[in-house]
């Protein structure tokens, strides 16, 4: 019996339940050539959910997926990690008796085999499992990604996301729900959970629901009897420029959502925004769940969010959830309890209030909707490291709270916020007319109130909108139009041309690069509207230290006061902090080593990066930790990096470009390891200037097969009349790069179609060597030539970029005559490449920039490309 099954057995009485005890074969009885199995069981317990199980190391790694799988990559389905189950459980169907753990009916909804991408054990440990499913209902590529959030309970469970990867199995959820279309068992054809169980429901119109039994709460010392107040003003955090150095502080995620206060009074639950608006009707799941806590009366404090990519809060996704009435995606994270069951807790120290709140959530009934209401945990780490990690994940920042502080209304120095970048609310005072093909409006005119209560003009924002938000916001603002500007200092010149003024009633959240000396924001990006804050309260946020003593001791020393930050190393005019942090354990390579490498190869590398949209692979905790792929600037400012025109990627923050050695090292300072570039330059983004063919082999193949494949590819291109250049990928394969003269007739779709036709021609000509379909299951013993890197927005690792792999190999340009002598695509590393560059007599790609060639109609015809 694998030791991982101890939790499984401890929770079950096998004299009462027919679930298997786990007596089948152990991990060491598995044959190496056995397929790994998966099963998805539909489980009608206190709530209907789906149990997703993957066989690994002799057990079934298991996740509870409340909504079941979706074939739409846009649906990031919560998957709560639960205890391992025995292999026998894959065949279990039947009834678990009431009173037993997981009591209810179980069917096998789907089953089959799964095929991991890479090492499944390492991926599982790292929290990034990617795999293919070959089941009776589910197929294609999927991912399980661990978030940084946990549920409640004495042993809070990890929260993961189950995500469908993009392939030919994708179906939009608006058109198809696989759980509704195929509800029955794949073994018996039976179904469970077809009829909803009789339970009390919250009513959005009056906030009432059936009561649970009152929770037994022992008030902490310092609580005083009090009547539940009708209203409650929340405690607010003060923006600071560095963490305090005195006292005990707890740190939480700064959620990118709406602050919500919940009032429970007998049978009535009400949810209020920060400015007192009743939002109960917008949050029916949260109202039901809070009632299920069984509290007689209480005020609870927290924030509602919607999780976006990588399981971090997404403010625009939250707005979309409200606007489209998809409240099922919303989660309410609780972090404080100022009143409870007739007791005023505001004078109780924060840490004791939070401990009480956590106990209440842990003791809640088993059928509590634990996706709807969760506990906001704290993190046991240095605040500087927490902020760095939060920024690397594109979070807004962190909140610090003094552990012994009472709950006090209004802004307080006992609660502080440390932000990753510039971001705050602004009042909308007008909008400009649209230009070109744009509809709705061109830009919003922004303002903030000064100390005298006058609205001051603070600039414009014209990016961050999509067609839907443009039309909706324009429609709303047309009802607020006025003839005179609301600003005490209205804009002049071009800023005031073709402007329609509006009443200063609506509030927008804006991310921006910086304030100018004139009080104007630069590089502003619209994040969404705020309905929870009154316009008259919007002022310019200015960071200040918690105290004079803390400012003196904080690490955030102004660059004008000291040339190099404490503990930092100056490399290429960039202060590299934590220079001794190890980023690759096998070689002991540090952050400073990586920064010095990029500074040393900048002359070679920058021509491949200049003015080209660049994506970053960031690994702040080293290559064995969490990795993030950053395509846009977001709110995080990276030293020296160029933010491109936002119109190049409408609806998103600016794309990035690396145009200097300072930018290269600045990216390393923020945890970047790899650099990936588009196939076009920023000045003519719709006209690609190259095609990339990625020779992607079955990892089991010897490298000689990769060399042979590359030679065949070169021969094919030579026959077509196209000159190609080679570089190692730094992984298993090779990159064949075809430079092109930019032409209006050769857009993204045309060149991608041509590249696909070339690959299909190679697969048809050499079927024993190549395949034209991606996926590990299709390239067993063969090589896939990846043409998908030629999509708009796709990218390829740049020449001279380090790879986030063991040994830190580098993607290296080579001459054609060097190909046969290669030992592997990871032949050169961060430590060995400088020696090669020192010995080179010339650039292996010396002819690249001068190559003038185009994909002609005859070439497309010869490979069967149809535009």
From TrEMBL:
Residues 214-226 have a biased composition (Low complexity). It comes from the Bacteria. Gene3D superfamilies: 3.30.1490.70, DNA ligase/mRNA capping enzyme (3.30.470.30), DNA primase, PRIM domain (3.90.920.10), Nucleic acid-binding proteins (2.40.50.140). Residues 1-30, 187-227 are annotated as: Disordered. Keywords: ATP-binding, DNA damage, DNA recombination, DNA repair, DNA-binding, DNA-directed DNA polymerase, Exonuclease, Hydrolase, Ligase, Manganese, Metal-binding, Multifunctional enzyme, Nuclease, Nucleotide-binding, Nucleotidyltransferase, Transferase. Residues 323-419 form the ATP-dependent DNA ligase family profile domain. InterPro entries: DNA_ligase_ATP-dep_C, DNA_ligase_ATP-dep_cent, LigD_ligase_dom, LigD_PE_domain, LigD_pol_dom, NA-bd_OB-fold, NHEJ_ligase_prk, NHEJ_LigD. One of its GO terms (molecular function) is ATP binding. NCBIfam families: LigD_PE_dom, ligD_pol, NHEJ_ligase_lig, NHEJ_ligase_prk, PRK05972.1. This is DNA ligase (ATP). It comes from Ralstonia edaphi. The lineage of its organism: Bacteria, Pseudomonadati, Pseudomonadota, Betaproteobacteria, Burkholderiales.
């Amino acid at each position: 019996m694998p030791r991982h099954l101890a939790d499984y057995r401890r929770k079950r009485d096998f004299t009462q339940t027919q679930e298997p005890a786990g007596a089948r074969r152990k991990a060491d009885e598995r044959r190496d050539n056995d397929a790994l199995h998966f099963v998805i069981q539909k489980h009608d317990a206190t709530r209907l959910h789906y149990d997703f199980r993957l066989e690994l190391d002799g057990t079934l790694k298991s996740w509870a997926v409340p909504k079941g799988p979706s074939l739409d990559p846009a649906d990031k389905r919560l998957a709560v990690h639960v205890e391992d189950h025995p292999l026998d459980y894959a065949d279990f169907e039947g009834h678990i008796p009431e009173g037993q753990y997981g009591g209810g009916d179980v069917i096998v909804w789907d089953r089959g085999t799964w095929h991991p991408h890479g090492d499944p054990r390492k991926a599982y440990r790292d929290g990034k499992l990617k795999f293919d499913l070959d089941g009776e209902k589910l197929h294609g590529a999927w991912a399980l990604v661990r978030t940084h959030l946990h549920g409640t309970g004495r042993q809070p469970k990890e929260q993961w996301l189950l995500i469908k990867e993009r392939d030919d199995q994708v179906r939009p959820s608006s058109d198809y729900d696989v759980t509704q279309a195929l509800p029955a068992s794949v073994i018996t054809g039976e179904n469970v959970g077809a009829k909803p169980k009789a339970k009390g429901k919250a009513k959005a119109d009056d906030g009432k629901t059936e009561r649970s039994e009152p929770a037994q709460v022992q008030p902490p010392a310092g609580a005083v009897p009090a009547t539940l107040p009708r209203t409650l003003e929340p405690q607010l955090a003060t923006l600071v420029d560095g963490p305090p150095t005195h006292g005990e502080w707890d740190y939480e995620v700064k959620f990118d959502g709406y602050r919500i206060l919940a009032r429970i009074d007998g049978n009535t639950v009400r949810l209020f925004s920060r400015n007192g608006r009743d939002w109960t009707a917008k949050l029916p799941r949260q109202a039901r769940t809070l009632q299920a806590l069984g509290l007689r009366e209480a005020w609870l404090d927290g924030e509602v969010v919607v999780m976006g990519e990588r399981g971090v809060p997404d403010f625009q996704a939250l707005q979309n959830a409200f606007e489209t009435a998809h409240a099922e995606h919303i989660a309410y994270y609780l972090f404080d309890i100022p009143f409870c069951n007739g007791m005023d807790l505001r004078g109780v120290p924060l840490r004791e209030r939070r401990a009480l709140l956590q106990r209440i959530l842990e003791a809640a009934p088993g059928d509590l909707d634990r996706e709807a209401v969760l506990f906001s945990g704290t993190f046991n780490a240095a605040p500087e490291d927490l902020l760095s990690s939060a920024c690397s994940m594109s979070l807004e920042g962190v909140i610090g709270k003094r552990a012994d502080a009472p709950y006090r209304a209004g802004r307080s120095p006992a609660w502080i916020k440390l932000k990753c970048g510039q971001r705050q609310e602004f009042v909308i005072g007008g909008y400009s007319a649209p230009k070109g093909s744009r509809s709705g409006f061109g830009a919003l005119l922004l303002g903030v109130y000064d100390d005298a209560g006058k609205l001051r003009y603070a600039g414009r924002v014209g990016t961050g909108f999509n067609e839907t938000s443009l039309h909706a916001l324009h429609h709303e603002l047309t009802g607020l139009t006025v003839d005179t500007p609301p600003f005490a200092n209205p804009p002049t010149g071009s800023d005031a041309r073709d402007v329609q003024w509006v009443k200063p009633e609506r509030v927008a959240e804006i991310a921006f690069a910086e304030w100018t000396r004139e009080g104007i924001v630069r590089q502003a990006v619209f994040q969404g509207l705020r309905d929870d804050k009154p316009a008259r309260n919007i002022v310019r946020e200015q960071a200040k230290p918690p105290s004079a003593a803390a400012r003196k001791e904080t690490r955030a020393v102004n660059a004008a006061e000291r040339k190099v930050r404490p503990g930092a190393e100056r490399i290429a005019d960039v202060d590299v902090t934590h220079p001794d942090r190890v980023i690759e354990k096998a070689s002991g390579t540090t952050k400073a080593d990586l920064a010095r490498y990029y500074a040393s190869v900048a002359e070679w590398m920058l021509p491949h990066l200049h003015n080209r949209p660049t994506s970053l692979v960031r690994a702040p905790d080293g290559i064995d930790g969490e990795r993030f792929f950053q395509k846009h600037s977001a709110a995080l400012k990276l030293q020296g990096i160029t933010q491109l025109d936002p119109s190049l990627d409408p609806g998103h923050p600016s794309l990035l470009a690396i145009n200097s050695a300072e930018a290269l090292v600045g990216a390393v300072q923020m945890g970047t390891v790899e650099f990936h570039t588009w196939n076009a330059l920023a000045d003519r983004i719709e006209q690609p200037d190259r095609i990339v063919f990625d020779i992607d082999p079955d990892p089991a193949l010897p490298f000689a097969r990769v060399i042979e494949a590359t030679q065949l590819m070169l021969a094919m291109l030579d026959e077509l009349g196209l000159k190609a250049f080679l570089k190692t990928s730094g992984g298993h394969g090779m990159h064949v790069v075809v430079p092109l003269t930019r032409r209006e007739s050769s857009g993204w779709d045309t060149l991608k179609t041509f590249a696909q036709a070339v690959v299909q021609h190679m697969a048809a000509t050499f079927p024993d060597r190549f395949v034209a379909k991606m996926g590990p299951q299709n390239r067993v013993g063969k090589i896939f030539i990846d043409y998908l890197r030629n999509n708009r927005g796709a990218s390829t690792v740049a020449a001279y970029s380090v790879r986030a792999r063991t040994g830190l190999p580098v993607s290296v340009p080579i001459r054609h005559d060097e190909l046969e002598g290669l030992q592997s695509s990871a032949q050169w590393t961060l430590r060995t490449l400088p020696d090669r560059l020192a010995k080179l007599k010339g650039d292996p790609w010396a002819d690249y920039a001068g190559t003038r060639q185009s994909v002609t109609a005859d070439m497309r015809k010869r490979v069967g490309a149809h535009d």
